[in-house]
């Protein structure tokens, strides 16, 4: 990263800063939020309106206690990744809005993820925000601000104003360099709120009602656009699903679309053009080392919703295609492996357990924290501290476990991080095709 302007111009650019709409209202919230150590739902709505007005409707769907608990954890977390990624668990809070929360209300200095700020430091808006992108940006801004004896708010204003005065576009560009259309906004909303969370929880068939999407996005007389987006092949390809049924009126609120997970043929990698290159399925996990040369390695495989009806040894209880492939991948390594069970915590593959109906994807955050504490205690009791842990598990199963393990100096490998469920199945199929 490199500033597009001389650092000596920072004070003058800040003086000309022109995006003052609603900013004082955010600054006025600082005292109350600092005293409470968390954000209320009403305060979150004001923050969302300032940064991304379109997300305000999604913010409304958050439970007030959930907002307070998530923000409290983010403000008190010692791990940098936990601070920002935890905030994105809130409906309507993506990385840019999460950066605003940290920028205005965390005691440490943070920049704001904004297309103008990124342009001013010579960086394009990425296809997908990650911690690997966020943290170098934070460090660059902190170092530059400190070197010039200005606070982060001043530096952020300078970045924004320089872009305002010199960048040609008035809207954040998407991957193709164009403003995002309403159709794309709808597809992104449906993918992020209605389809991908269900796929992540193991649901095979997902029903989406057009009227629910229209209401949630607070659209006005845009039902035909919603229905068109729901039935588009682009949405299906993006999410790795197929439309198997459609009922109700052609373009009405009661139009219902039923999607089913589309499992790629084993040995084939999807080549859909709209999947960003950085998320294309790789033949080997990124940063993967030769695991057979690493002593003290164990594998952790998350449970799934599809189970046998009767008690079974744990490795045979779970019967989904994903679990079968993940199990094969763990077993072929030659290292010990354990199961992350939403009900029982850490389970040995040969332990006999009863079937259950419980998933972390639907647990309250306090319950997930308790579950993570249980897993860490079981891990400590059952094993000497491993040097490396390979986690075949989704974000909810890792969120409070992974940071603690890293803090203990354990090397964590998440080979399928960022891949959708269909991509995970294809990747696992490649790794286990000779098993």
Structural commentary:
The chain is an alpha/beta fold and 435 residues long. It has three domains: 7-166; 182-261; 277-431, Rossmann fold (3-Layer(aba) Sandwich), CATH 3.40.50. It contains 20 helices and ten strands. The protein has helices spanning 10-15, 23-36, 41-51, 56-59, 64-76, 80-87, 95-105, 115-120, 131-147, 152-166, 182-200, 210-216, 223-230, 233-239, 314-317, 321-333, 365-382, 395-398, 402-407, 421-431, and strands at residues 205-209, 241-247, 256-261, 297-302, 312-313, 337-341, 345-347, 352-353, 388-392, 411-413. Strands 7-6-4-9-10 form a five-stranded mixed sheet, sandwiched between helices. Strand 6 (337-341) and strand 7 (345-347) form a beta hairpin. Helix 2 (23-36) runs antiparallel to helix 3 (41-51) and helix 5 runs antiparallel to helix 6 (80-87).
SSE blueprint and pairings:
Blueprint: H1 10-15, H2 23-36, H3 41-51, H4 56-59, H5 64-76, H6 80-87, H7 95-105, H8 115-120, H9 131-147, H10 152-166, H11 182-200, E1 205-209, H12 210-216, H13 223-230, H14 233-239, E2 241-247, E3 256-261, E4 297-302, E5 312-313, H15 314-317, H16 321-333, E6 337-341, E7 345-347, E8 352-353, H17 365-382, E9 388-392, H18 395-398, H19 402-407, E10 411-413, H20 421-431
Parallel strand pairs: 4-6, 4-9, 9-10
Antiparallel strand pairs: 1-3, 2-3, 5-8, 6-7
Helix pairs in contact: 2-3, 5-6, 6-7, 9-10, 11-13, 11-14, 12-13, 16-20
